[in-house]
Amino acid sequence: MSARSARDPSPFRSGLVHSFLGAFTLTFVLGSAGSAMHVFGTPDAASPSVRMALFEDAPDDAPQLNPRLPGYQEALGYTESAPAPASAETGNEPDLGVEYDGAAPVRAVVTVPSERDGIRINGRTVMPGQTFSQVSQDTASTTAIVAVDAPEPQTVADSSPLARNAKAFSNAEGKPTVSIIVGGLGINTTRTRAAINELPPEITLSFAPTSENLSRWVRDARRAGHEVLIELPMEPYDYGRQRPHPQVMQVGVSADTNKQRLARLLARTPGYFGVMNYQGDKFATAPDAMKPVFQELSDKGVAFFEDGSLVRSEFTAGARETGLVFGKATSWVDARPEADEISQQLLLLESTARERGAALGTGMSFPVTLDILKDWLPTLEEKGIALAPASYYAKRASASGQVRQASLNPQG
């Protein structure tokens, strides 16, 4: 029995040995073939391919520097000028209340190096220290600024946000006017895009201070022809129940603190012409806290709007004392976001416009509000009512001290 076992090995052991030898042989053959192709093969023998040149030929003396290392800007030709004189034109940037202790701000003048120092990607030159996405964003921003922020010819030079960014409107026929502000934008992407793209340009759009992409939304709104407000958070009576905005206007802090918070909020983006309160039923009843903020807005040339949600408010008196361009909404159209209620409030706006000559309504970007507005706005012209931007309402009310009576056609 033992002799037979020696002559006939185990089938299981034979299978393992043969499997190992087969795998080793296959690996050796494939490895040898791959090595031979790598050493002796030529790229031209491969399948057809398309080659794209992303880099242009650069001169031999072009600096190859790591952009994170100090000194690369000087090597590429960047220079920084001396401080600009105090009388130099600073462009159209709004005054954000930043002080420089009597010295003029230092403005760096950049000498852009030649395009040969960069690389070309999809038709754009990317310089050392930049990425393609940054170049694409910069190009889009420049286009938007040229198209929207180009100042119109004015008889009197005025660089305030109200003069630069309010939408031009003329009411030569003296028609009653209705103005609408749609607020709470910048939080919900779908509703914000719908308000920007689907509402007429005469509708004023107001953006929430908590919007993460505030500058982009404001730029898109202005490109669509809308004028823009930024919502200014103000202290309510139930302050503290929910997480407050860091730049909220408070009653219990100093005037300087509120001014600093206001400057930070206004510095988030250009393109606005005014602000509108967000909450603020407590702050609206505190003239001592309110007047320094209103005076700051007036000095900067920024308009202020009250959204019509406050039961008690001293905003009208505070605006009159500080000379602030001010508009108070006559109706909050979607305090109850129901179709019948919104329609009734819009009819009330029409009646107010006929009685006083002008009316201002505010609403949120609820889908039902946007849908009803899109159906209602085209009917104003046949009713003899003009749709005007909110800045027209505020300028008119501030210039006359009150909204004046318009001459009405007895036939409607």
Say which CATH homologous superfamily of the domain at 175-400 is assigned: Glycoside hydrolase/deacetylase
Q: Which fold name corresponds to the CATH topology of the domain at 175-400?
A: TIM Barrel
| Strand percent estimate | 5-15%
**Count of DSSP helices?**
13
Rg (CA only): 33 Å
Please state the overall shape, judged from the principal axes of the Cα atoms.
Answer: elongated
Structural class: alpha/beta
**Largest sheet, described in full?**
9 strands, parallel
**Class of the domain at 175-400, according to the CATH hierarchy?**
Alpha Beta
What is the rounded distance between the termini? 122 Å
CATH-defined architecture of the domain at 175-400: Alpha-Beta Barrel
Structural account:
With 412 residues, this protein is an alpha/beta fold. The protein has a domain of 226 residues: Glycoside hydrolase/deacetylase (TIM Barrel, Alpha-Beta Barrel). The protein contains 13 helices and 11 strands. The strands form 2 sheets. Strands 3, 4, 5, 6, 7, 8, 9, 10 and 11 form a 9-stranded parallel beta sheet that branches. A two-stranded antiparallel sheet has the order 1-2. α8 links the parallel β5 and β6. The radius of gyration is 33 Å and the shape is elongated. The C terminus is likely disordered.
Describe the structure in brief.
The chain has 412 residues and is an alpha/beta fold. It has helices at residues 2-7, 11-40, 72-76, 132-148, 161-165, 189-198, 214-223, 255-266, 287-300, 315-322, 339-356, 367-376, 390-400, and strands at residues 119-121, 124-126, 177-185, 204-207, 228-234, 274-279, 303-306, 326-328, 331-332, 358-364, 386-387.
